[in-house]
Every structure is written in structure tokens, then in C-alpha cells.
């Protein structure tokens, strides 16, 4: 505001005016906190130890920093932040607008819609088991060096949520419920962006999916009994996935998460360089059945289309990953029969974890 007197002299002062959207509510949280910490929600054996016959434990790829282990109060705060539309400039979208639990924390749209109706540059990523991505870099192109760095970016993104970190702090401190949640999580009522980043990261790392049909094939000793669990078709798919079709070479461990960025030959000439040379990471394939469309640009609508692509669609380009080339350097052709293709799809559907998709611990606290 600027005031001017009769002689023309002026005095100015700046105020931030926050008017919350009228339809926002306060979160409803359980009286005794949900459990998120490893101590209260132990990872199953096939996630923590390697045993014969499985795909290997993902725990070696755990990207949790020593300074930000999951606590019940930290992840509770993270859950509230994740679902709170106050994290966008016009209270229009929350993280969950583009990362929906029913779709394994991805979005059914090819490109997601931001707070002012703009579209994201790439397809939203599923967040299940993000904790087990080796190296801990985030986004399709790994541009964020850690999850703690990643989670602040959508908030500031001009298309996605459109807030400055200063505005974020101001808005959160004007609510009735955040100061107490910050105190429970971090010991004082102070709201800082570092604490926001840590809490959101704890919640995202708590999105572990470990109760699919695939997981239930493993005994308490971490050894799988695929024969006794899967249909003949799923079993054939499992054998192809970890054998002749070579999928496990990139989508590895019992969390089916990629080991790094790869150029998979989606196109002969690269339009999106990703992490350089057309390389991208793939999120864990857990719950892949429910989170179409697929790939960084959402180009495939079905898992059948994805397998057909690996079967005979891989394009030659200078960056094409050696794992998708013949020894002579040509793009690999798998020559799958229709029966084998469908078996691979059936096997990927054993990664669907209904418990995870409806777990109240991970759902919105806003009515
Ligand atoms: C408007 C839609 C939108 C909103 C809102 C949004 N995201 Fe995303 N998210 C995306 C898209 C699109 C990508 C992939 C972008 C890319 O890689 O270029 C992504 C990627 C991610 C990733 C990377 C996953 C990985 O494995 O690398 C994480 C983590 C994530 N988002 C968390 C969040 C959090 C936390 C919030 C809220 C603070 C949020 N997102 C808000 C659309 C959105
Ligand atoms: C060379 C490593 C590599 C191999 C081998 C490989 N993939 Fe992938 N896969 C990737 C990468 C990288 C992506 C992400 C590519 C992108 O979006 O540009 C991906 C994406 C996918 C997706 C979509 C994931 C999503 O979130 O949209 C599915 C499903 C998939 N792969 C299944 C398979 C199957 C089935 C096989 C075996 C027939 C296989 N992959 C072999 C690296 C690989």
C-alpha cells in the first residue's frame, strides 16, 4: 500500500494478504497416530534380505538419508501437506491432484492439470516404492538430487502449484493446525521449508507397497513359492520377465524398480532428451495395472501395448541401451507369441496391491 500526502510525499508498506478458499476444511486425524516408522511397520523379509528364487531385496537401494528416517509424526504431517490444496497459489490443487491413491499415486491423464489449468510437460509418476530407487535422484530425468529437493519443486513450479517458498511458509503458519503438527514432528512450532521438505519426503517414502499377489508368494523366510501361488499363465510371465524377455535386467529387485536411467528406444529420433541421450528412469512397476497411461509421455494406454513395444517396437538410435540390442547392435526383437505377451501382462498384474490402493494411512485426511 502507498499513502500520499497533499505535498506529494509518499510512504509505502507491503502486506501479504492471505484469503483461503472458502471450501477448505481442516484435516481429521486419528487420536492415536497411524504407524509409518520402520519400527512399527517392518518391511517384509523379501524387501530386506536376499533369498534364493526372488528378484533380490531392494533395501540396498533405500534412499532414506540418515537425517530423515520416517517417524509417525513426520509422515503424518507429510500426509496432511500432500493432500492440502493450500500448497497451491489459488488453493486449487494439492500433490494428490496429480498423484491419486486409487491410481497408485499417478494420474489417468496423459499430462496433468496444474492450479491454473496449465498442463505438465510429462506424465505424472507413480510414487509407490520411490524409497527404493537406487541413487535417490527424482523425476523421469533425475533432475532432483534427492527426494528432499524434489518435493519442494512442484510447489514452486509455475504450472503445477505456483507458490514461492515464502508464501508457503506464510500460508501454513496462518492455519490453526500446522503449528501443532510441526511441533509433534520436529519438536517446535516453527514452520520452515526444510521441515516441509523433510515431512513430505517421509510421507512419500512411507508409500511402500508390499502386499500384492507377487509379495504374498514369499514366505516369512523371504523365499518365494511362485508355483504354489501363481496361475500357469502368471508363472510363464514370471519366467519370461526374469528370463528371456529381460525385463528384470532393468526393472529389478522384488520392488521392480529401475536401477538407473536408460534409453529404451521409444523413438528413432529423440524429442525429449530426459537425463541426456533420451534416458529416463522408470518408477517401480508395483500397481502398474491401475496407473495407465505409460511412459514419460504417457504414449501407451495398455500394458499389452507396452509389451508389444518391447517385443518388436524398439527403435534404433545412438543412445539405445545395450540391453535392448542384439550382440550385433540391432534393436532387440523378442519374438513373443500372443500367449507369451499375455503371460507377461498377467504377471505384471500380480504387482497390484489392493491394500496399498485403499490404505487409510495413506488416504486424504480432509473430508
Ligand atoms: C500438476 C500436477 C502435479 C502436482 C500438483 C504434483 N506433481 Fe509430482 N509429478 C508430476 C509430474 C508430471 C511428474 C513427472 C515430472 C517430470 O519428471 O518431469 C511428477 C513427479 C514427482 C515425483 C518424482 C517421482 C520419481 O520417482 O522420480 C515425486 C516424488 C513427486 N512428483 C511428488 C510430488 C509432491 C510431494 C507434490 C506436492 C508437493 C507433487 N508431486 C505435486 C505432477 C504433479
Ligand atoms: C534397458 C532397460 C529396460 C528393459 C530391458 C525393460 N525396461 Fe521397461 N522401462 C525402462 C525405462 C527406462 C522405462 C521408462 C521409459 C520412458 O518413460 O521413457 C520403462 C518403462 C516401462 C513401463 C512403463 C512404466 C511407467 O511407469 O509408465 C513398463 C510397464 C515396462 N517398462 C515394462 C517392461 C517389460 C514388461 C519389460 C520386458 C519385456 C521391460 N520393461 C524391459 C527400462 C527397461
Automatic annotation (TrEMBL):
Membrane-crossing segments per the record: none
Keywords: Heme, Iron, Metal-binding, Oxidoreductase, Signal
InterPro entries associated with the record: Cyt_c-like_dom, Cyt_c-like_dom_sf, Cytochrome_c_Peroxidase/MauG, Di-haem_cyt_c_peroxidsae
One matching Pfam family: Cytochrom_C
A GO cellular component entry from the record: cell envelope
Subcellular locations according to the entry: Cell envelope
Keyword Oxidoreductase: yes
GO molecular function, one term: heme binding
Domain Cytochrome c intervals: 232-352
PANTHER family for the chain: BLL6722 PROTEIN, CYTOCHROME C PEROXIDASE-RELATED
Protein name: Cytochrome c domain-containing protein
Record organism: Gemmatimonas phototrophica
Amino acid at each position: 500500500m502507498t499513502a500520499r500526502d497533499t505535498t506529494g510525499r509518499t510512504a509505502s508498506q507491503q502486506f501479504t494478504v492471505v484469503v483461503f478458499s472458502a471450501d477448505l476444511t481442516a484435516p481429521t486425524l486419528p487420536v492415536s497416530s497411524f504407524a509409518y516408522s520402520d519400527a512399527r511397520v517392518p518391511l517384509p523379509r523379501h524387501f530386506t534380505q536376499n533369498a534364493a528364487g526372488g528378484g533380490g531385496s531392494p533395501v540396498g537401494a533405500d534412499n532414506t538419508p540418515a537425517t530423515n528416517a520416517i517417524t509417525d509424526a513426520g509422515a503424518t504431517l507429510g500426509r496432511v501437506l500432500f493432500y492440502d490444496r493450500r500448497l497451491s497459489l489459488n488453493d486449487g490443487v494439492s500433490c494428490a491432484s496429480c498423484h491419486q491413491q486409487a491410481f497408485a499415486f499417478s494420474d489417468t491423464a496423459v499430462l496433468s492439470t496444474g492450479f491454473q489449468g496449465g498442463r505438465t510437460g510429462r506424465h505424472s509418476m507413480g510414487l509407490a516404492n520411490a524409497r527404493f530407487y537406487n541413487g535417490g535422484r527424482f523425476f523421469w530425468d533425475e533432475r532432483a538430487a534427492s527426494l528432499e529437493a524434489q518435493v519442494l519443486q512442484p510447489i514452486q513450479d509455475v504450472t503445477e502449484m505456483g507458490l514461492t517458498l515464502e508464501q508457503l511458509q506464510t500460508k501454513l503458519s496462518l492455519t490453526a493446525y500446522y503449528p501443532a503438527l510441526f511441533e509433534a514432528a520436529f519438536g517446535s512450532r516453527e514452520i520452515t521449508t526444510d521441515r516441509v521438505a523433510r515431512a513430505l519426503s517421509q510421507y512419500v517414502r512411507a508409500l511402500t507397497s508390499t502386499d500384492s499377489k507377487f509379495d504374498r508368494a514369499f514366505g516369512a523366510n523371504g523365499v518365494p513359492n511362485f508355483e504354489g501361488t501363481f496361475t500357469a499363465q502368471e508363472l510363464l510371465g514370471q519366467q519370461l520377465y526374469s528370463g528371456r524377455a529381460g525385463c528384470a535386467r532393468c526393472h529389478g529387485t522384488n520392488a521392480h524398480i529401475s536401477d538407473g536411467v536408460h534409453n529404451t528406444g521409444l523413438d528413432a529420433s529423440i524429442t525429449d532428451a530426459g537425463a541426456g541421450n533420451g534416458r529416463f528412469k522408470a518408477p517401480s512397476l508395483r500397481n502398474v495395472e491401475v496407473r495407465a497411461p505409460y511412459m514419460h509421455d504417457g504414449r501407451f494406454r495398455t500394458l499389452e501395448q507396452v509389451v508389444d513395444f518391447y517385443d518388436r517396437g524398439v527403435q534404433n538410435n545412438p543412445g539405445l541401451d545395450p540391453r535392448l540390442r542384439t550382440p550385433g547392435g540391432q534393436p532387440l526383437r523378442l519374438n513373443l507369441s500372443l500367449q507369451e505377451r499375455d503371460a507377461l501382462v498377467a504377471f505384471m498384474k500380480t504387482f497390484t496391491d489392493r491394500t496399498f490402493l485403499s490404505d487409510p494411512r495413506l488416504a486424504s485426511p480432509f473430508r
